[in-house]
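Email to the structure team, subject: DUF3093 domain-containing protein model.

Hi all, the expression group asked for a predicted structure before they design truncation constructs. Nothing fancy, just the C-alpha cells so they can compare against earlier work. One-line instruction: predict DUF3093 domain-containing protein, return C-alpha cells.
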Amino acid sequence: MGPTPTWWVLSLLFSLSWLAAVGFYLGPIAGVVAFICSQGLVTAAFLATAIRLELEDGELRIGRAVLELAYVSAVAGLDPEATAERSGPKADVRAHLVLRPYARSSIELTLNDPADPVPYWLVSTRRPAALAQAVQTARAARLTR
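Reply from the structure team: attached below.
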C-alpha cells in the first residue's frame, strides 16, 4: 500500500517549488537538477515507507510483522471515523498499530492468544471491506483443513 495520487501530486508540487527556487537563483540547469533530485528523494521515501500486505499460507504479513490467522478471533472493517476512535481515544496501549496517514480506514484483527498481550491489530487500508473479507475467507479455509 503506497501513497494516494494526491500525495504524488503534492510531491510533484514540492519538487516544482525546488525547480523554481533553485532555477531562479542558480539557473535553469541547476533548477532541473534540483527538481530531479527532490522528486527522486520523495519517491524513494514513499517506496521505502510503503507497507506490503500479504495473505498466504494462513499468515497475514504486514511489512515485516507476521500474524498467524489461527490466533485471529474476529475481523472488522472500520470506516475513517471508527479508525480514528480505535487509534485515538478508545485505543488500547497494548495494540499493534500499522497506520498510514493516506489510508484513513482500517481493519481490526482481534486476537485470541493467551501468550500474547496484544489484544488487537489495527491496520490501515483503503479497502477495509475487501481485506476483512479476504482475511475471513483465509481463516475459514485454514479452519477447515
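The chain has two domains: 5-49, 53-143. DSSP finds four helices and seven strands in the chain. Ping us if the truncation boundaries need rechecking.
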